[in-house]
Write a structure and sequence with these properties.
This is Site-specific integrase. GO terms for molecular function: DNA binding. One of its GO terms (biological process) is DNA recombination. Keywords: DNA recombination, DNA-binding. Residues 231-406 form the Tyr recombinase domain. The protein has 15 helices and six strands. Strands 1-2-3 form a three-stranded antiparallel β-sheet. A three-stranded antiparallel β-sheet has the order 4-5-6. The longest helix is centred in the first third of the chain and has 30 residues, at 82-111. The chain has 418 residues and is of the alpha+beta class. Helix 3 (138-157) crosses helix 5 (193-210) and helix 11 packs antiparallel against helix 12. It has three domains: 13-111, no CATH class; 123-210, no CATH class; 238-404, Intergrase catalytic core (hpI Integrase, Chain A). It starts with 12 loop residues before the first strand and ends with a helix.
């Protein structure tokens, strides 16, 4: 049986595909490298290994990129005579000659020796193009844009790199520059923000490498770390929530206020609360059912079923007549306008914390745990796939920690000496 011989280090490799007529079709298989994408939980946070030798290290999904080129050449799988054997020999020799030529051209392109004039050399222009890439979801594009703007700010505010704020050559992206940018992110952000921005920056750099625009990975060995087991956003206590609910002022946006109060008592994200319709409300079972927009494309735990008490049903209100299941429960402006009205409301209430819409979701978790609700119940109400994510809220739960310390009783050391 005729079979081609390949070597492990050949790229491309000469391969064959068996046909039903007793022949084999020859083709070249190129290995274009691999891409790594982080494994994220339902909140978009990096997942880490918890056991084994990899414990504490981030999980990544590895995708190997290969491409085939059909040569339109064929050999006999079971040559029946001398003529077919000679034909196989000549065909394989031609295929190997083509493979070798392709390998040389491929190596030159990969090493950067054949630099095409139309290739993008300005990293900033390349980065800007990626901000509009259709392969990213809407929310990822928003994060990429934020990362781009933060990188431009870094260049402008760093004397050594300020001259590159409009044109930054690909070869200027060095490990030293990346390290300075990582330090800039840490100094000008908090919580998971710096880490997420650095993740998207690395993603753009890896794309540039895959496109043959950069020769090495300047991000290798550089990371932006933070404590992933804690949630660092501000939260509103129940007393602050009551103060907020009772605060009114001229020019207030009642629809924004109604929706945010709903978030405080249901943990619903802004991207979900703005899309809720009366069709999501099951009046017979007093239940709110919907799929979480943020995770529905990558998680089997996107469905949420939330029980509605009298207060929540009153907050939702009754649908218009005639009944339309697609009628929105909350008629909200865009996210920026909602947060603008929210910040004004927070300020009028005399609350000095930095509160965004998503802080309402965190407040729900902390207040539930503070009231003694089982963590598994809180996890299910929030639509988490497990309690690992929910446990991040426990560090805010100071009351339980203090009660645990007080349970030891009085020490009495100071009193005994008086």
């Amino acid at each position: 049986m005729a079979k081609i011989q390949t070597r492990n280090k050949q790229n491309p490799k000469l391969q064959q595909s068996e046909l039903k007529d007793g022949r084999a079709s020859l083709y070249l298989e190129y290995y274009l490298g691999r891409t790594e994408s982080p494994v994220l939980d339902e909140d978009g946070n990096q997942v880490f290994y918890t056991t084994g030798a990899m414990a504490g290290k981030p999980k990544f999904k590895v995708k190997h990129d290969r491409r085939k080129e059909n040569l339109n050449l064929y050999i006999w799988l079971h040559p029946r005579n001398q003529e077919e054997r000679i034909q196989n020999k000549n065909t394989l020799a031609l295929a190997e000659k083509i493979r070798f030529e392709r390998e040389q051209a491929f190596l030159e392109d990969r090493a950067g020796y054949r630099l095409k004039k139309d290739r993008q050399t300005n990293f900033l222009a390349y980065f800007k193009e990626k901000c509009e890439s259709e392969r990213f979801t809407y929310y990822v594009r928003k994060s990429v844009v934020q990362t781009y703007n933060r990188f431009i700010r870094f260049l402008k505010e760093t004397p050594r790199y300020s001259k590159y704020d409009t044109f930054l050559h690909m070869e200027t992206i060095t490990p030293e520059l990346v390290l300075k940018f990582a330090e800039f992110l840490r100094a000008n952000g908090k919580g998971e923000g710096p880490n997420k921005m650095y993740h998207y920056f690395k993603r753009i750099v890896l794309d540039a490498i895959e496109d043959g625009l950069m020769r090495g990975n300047p991000c290798k060995g550089i990371s932006v770390k933070h404590d992933r087991n804690q949630v660092t956003k501000e939260v509103l206590t129940l007393d602050e929530v009551r103060t907020l609910v009772g605060t009114h002022y001229e020019g207030e946006h009642k629809e924004v206020q109604r929706a945010f109060i709903f978030t405080l008592f249901t943990s619903t994200r802004w991207c979900d609360v703005k899309l809720l319709t009366y069709g999501n409300v099951d009046a017979s079972t007093r239940t709110l059912r919907f799929n979480q927009k943020k995770v529905e494309s990558r998680s089997s735990h996107s469905a949420v079923s939330f029980p509605l008490n009298d207060d929540l049903l009153a907050l939702i209100g009754k649908p218009s007549e005639p009944y339309d299941p697609n009628e929105l429960i909350f008629k909200l402006p865009n996210y920026s306008t909602c947060n603008k009205h929210l910040k004004r409301w927070i300020k009028e209430a005399g609350i000095t914390k930095w509160i965004s819409w998503h802080c309402g979701r965190h407040s729900f978790a902390v207040n539930m745990l503070d009231n003694g609700v089982n963590i598994k119940t809180v996890s299910e109400l929030m639509g988490h796939c497990g309690i690992t994510t929910t446990e991040k809220y426990l560090h805010v739960f100071d009351k339980q920690k203090m009660d645990a310390v007080n349970s030891l009783g009085s020490i009495g050391f100071g009193a005994a000496e008086t």
